[in-house]
């Protein structure tokens, strides 16, 4: 996958977050509560993190599928450090794009309700948090797959197909279905956007990302490049 494809995904994420957030704010009633306005402003978090995670999966897997890059890794004492640095850059980029979107939407939110800046900062931070969490998810899967095609397939399976399959399986094993769905990215995204479940959802997402990143780094470290 070319760099152009990855840039396009980032652009889609930013534009989608802005368009959805602005649209949701504008359709609110004039007397909407500040908390409702903030929730509408960050509603792009339901869409934009998906594209950033996909871009991260493509970027990481494309690096590892590059023959020249693979040969460069062989010459380094610790290839793990390279991918820790790359993952940190990807994560920072995801957070910065979200902060930029939030800053652009704040004036619009203020025009609808004066008290939006007094709403809990955690409500505004939902978008940056989800951008970060999905980028780490994509980076971890990219390191594990080491192929853009496989990375895209697995990423789509984890984000979209897994909840559907688990929900169907829940007809026969409800308890197992509920447990697995608690760690599905789609379920966690919805929970992060709700103040009552935000803390628990973030911790679960961090646990999922940490497991994938560690597994990915171990895979890269043990990779016998030929």
Primary descriptors:
membrane; 11 helices; mainly alpha; ABC-2 family transporter protein; transmembrane; transmembrane helix; 226 residues; globular; 0% strand
In words, what does this structure look like?
This is ABC-2 family transporter protein. Keywords: Membrane, Transmembrane, Transmembrane helix. The protein has 226 residues and is mostly helical. The chain has one domain. It has helices spanning 3-26, 34-41, 48-65, 67-74, 79-112, 121-124, 126-145, 148-169, 174-181, 185-192, 198-222. Helix 1 runs antiparallel to helix 2 (34-41), helix 2 (34-41) crosses helix 5 (79-112) and helix 7 runs parallel beside helix 11 (198-222). The protein is globular. The relative contact order is 0.14. The mean pLDDT is 86.
